[in-house]
Design brief:
The protein has 206 residues and is mainly α. It has helices spanning 2-16, 20-31, 34-59, 64-88, 96-112, 119-134, 138-149, 152-178, 183-205. The protein starts with a helix and ends with a helix.
Length: 206
């Protein structure tokens, strides 16, 4: 369980810092109550984590050999992809493209909502934007892979804690640190972590 918790916490925390959902939370917090945005964002990330863990548990019923090799390929594949992406990035601050996508998503959502927003509408907006941004993200597949071969409770708690840490940072001081986040460094660390977990999965199954 401790291994599952640690893996979920590390992978999610490193992968989510500077991600699209991070900047969505930061932008929303500049416009609305931080507390309400945090509630919506955290709820969405927790829901996504639970869905991913359930999917991972469903996958675990497949033949163990297939699950084992799929986990190795997924982690190492993501790791190589992240290292390749990092190699093509600028060594400067956060990725302007990611920030732009987050800002555009928030702008489109704001246009569809009434100008006078209630606390519930703010929470729902934060929830929906975050949930949609996370769907199909690499962290979702990483959580599914972890849950397929590790303790599901440990993965769930670790992943939700990792998401919560990133959400708190984004909502509380996202604007201040946004220009200081090196997307390249975070992507490099994330790529290395994915490869490490892929290698560990290969060793444990050998």
């Amino acid at each position: 369980m401790l291994t599952a918790f640690t893996a979920g916490l590390l992978l999610i925390t490193v992968s989510e810092l500077g991600d699209k959902t991070f900047f969505i939370a930061a932008i929303l917090a500049m416009r609305h109550s931080r507390r309400l945005v945090l509630i919506g964002v955290t709820a969405a990330l927790a829901a996504m984590t639970i869905i991913s863990v359930v999917a991972g548990q469903a996958v675990s019923f497949l033949p163990k050999l297939y699950v084992h090799y799929a986990e190795i390929v997924l982690f190492i594949g993501f790791g190589i992809k992240l290292l390749y992406d990092a190699n093509r990035m600028s060594a400067l601050s956060c990725d302007a493209e990611v920030v732009g996508e987050a800002k555009e998503a928030v702008e489109q959502a704001e246009k569809q909502l009434p100008k006078k927003k209630t606390p519930l509408s703010i929470i729902i907006e934060a929830f929906v934007l975050t949930f949609m941004a996370e769907w199909g993200d690499r962290t979702q597949f990483a959580t599914i892979a972890l849950a397929a071969s590790n303790n599901p409770f440990g993965v769930t708690v670790g992943a939700i804690l990792g998401h919560s840490i990133c959400a708190v940072i984004a909502v509380s001081c996202g604007r201040m640190i946004a220009g200081r986040i090196s997307e390249r460094q975070l992507t490099l660390i994330g790529g290395c972590l994915f490869i490490v977990f892929g290698v560990m999965a290969a060793i444990e199954g050998s």
